[in-house]
Amino acid sequence: MDIVFNCPHCEQELAVDNSGAGSEIQCPSCGAKIMIPAEATPPAPEPAPAGAVGGGSQASHTIASSAAAKIEMHLKVPVRDRPGEVLIAKPKPPLEAAKGADKKVRVRTIRHAACVEGGHDKFDEKAAEFLNEVGEANLVGIHTVGYTHFDVGTQKVVEDYGILVVYRG
């Protein structure tokens, strides 16, 4: 049978096996050194209200005799030899690029239709010119893009292409 008692420092209810009676332990709740009593300490009786006659009122007698008051709960505090597991992890700091950490990631779209000047297709020259400005070291990626648009001159929906350049700059 367990010895049930309260820590004199933090009032935490503790339950210890009979074999531990009379020994000194550290309270798992507050960490204070306490002596395990030889027998369970009875809970202190509540003082009767000042105006009560005959040891208490009808309301307190009803509560004391209810089923909820008769349930005894002896909770044991787990003792761990290492810290508990972290349930909520902090977010990791963002990665910083070694070179060009102060440069922002930018996006530029070069459309084929915007590169046609005077009937001449200059898409390749414009794309090469922009890529040379950016430089290979700052280039993150190049992606092809297909799209449709309404051409005002011909009054038709035209399919076209372009590139999407992702770079640091």
Please write out the topology.
Blueprint: E1 2-6, E2 13-17, E3 24-26, E4 33-35, H1 58-64, H2 67-70, E5 105-111, E6 116-117, E7 120-121, H3 123-134, E8 139-151, E9 156-168
Antiparallel strand pairs: 1-2, 3-4, 5-9, 6-7, 8-9
Describe the structure.
This protein is of the alpha+beta class. The chain folds into two domains: 2-70, no CATH class; 105-168, no CATH class. The protein has helices spanning 58-64, 67-70, 123-134; strands at 2-6, 13-17, 24-26, 33-35, 105-111, 116-117, 120-121, 139-151, 156-168. A hairpin with a 6-residue loop joins strand 3 and strand 4. It has a three-stranded antiparallel beta sheet with strand order 5-9-8, with helices on one face. The chain has a two-stranded antiparallel ribbon with strand order 1-2. It is rod-shaped and about 105 Å long.
Poorly predicted spans: none
Q: Percent of residues in beta strands?
A: 25-35%
Rg result: 40 Å
Task: Specify the overall morphology.
Answer: rod-shaped
Helix percentage: 10-25%
What can be said about the biggest beta sheet?
3 strands, antiparallel
In whole angstroms, the N-to-C terminal distance is 75 Å
Give a count of the beta strands, DSSP E runs of length 2 or more: 9
Number of domains: 2
| Averaged pLDDT | 77
Number of helices: 3
Structural class: alpha+beta
Placed side by side, the strands forming the largest sheet appear as 5-9-8
Q: Please write the string of helix (H) and strand (E) elements.
A: EEEEHHEEEHEE
